[in-house]
Amino acid sequence: MRHPSKRHRLWAFALLVLALTGCAGVEVEDYAGSEPRLDIAEYFEGETRAWGMVQDYSGEVQRRFTVDISGTVEGDTLTLDEHFTYANGDTDRRVWTFERVDEHRWIGQASDVEGKVEAKQYGHVFHMNYPLEVAVGGRNLTFTMDDWMYLQPDGKLINRTRMSKLGVTLGEVTLTFDKSP
Questions:
Q1: Which of 76, 89, 113, 164 has fewest C-beta within 10 Å?
Q2: Under 8 Å CB-to-CB from 70, ≥6 apart: which residues?
Q3: Is the pLDDT of residue 39 over 80?
Q4: Angle at 54 between CA 58 and CA 170, to 5 degrees
């Protein structure tokens, strides 16, 4: 009788891990009853400041930044005009436009995001998943951004975003938002 080769065992193990990770995970709907309730239009209307960092796959901080955000609400449309200032002096700008679909769902888009993004908010949590083109080492790479925001009881908003390519996490972005004047 022939025994499975080391290569076959490795492939079987990889498929098992892939199958198990495909079944796992938290859904934004799991937070439906949590408090305080987050509504992104209410939270971001007006001026907001955030502080953040980008870490690579090993956890090493690659960039630190602040973001000044002007949020306007007109009917069911939320516009976020984001101005980034990086620790090295670089600047950037992104403008998000979100259309409210219902109490829990939004459709968003930004100039550097491919296509329209479905976002959901339940309880104290907001979640969206989208492709974003990022300059890395002199070339542009498209990452999948798995973006989660969590409203804290004191009004601070914590944002954790996983950056992945082909299902492998290559970095994380962490931000803290503050509405204080």
A1: 89
A2: 46, 47, 80, 81
A3: yes
A4: 45
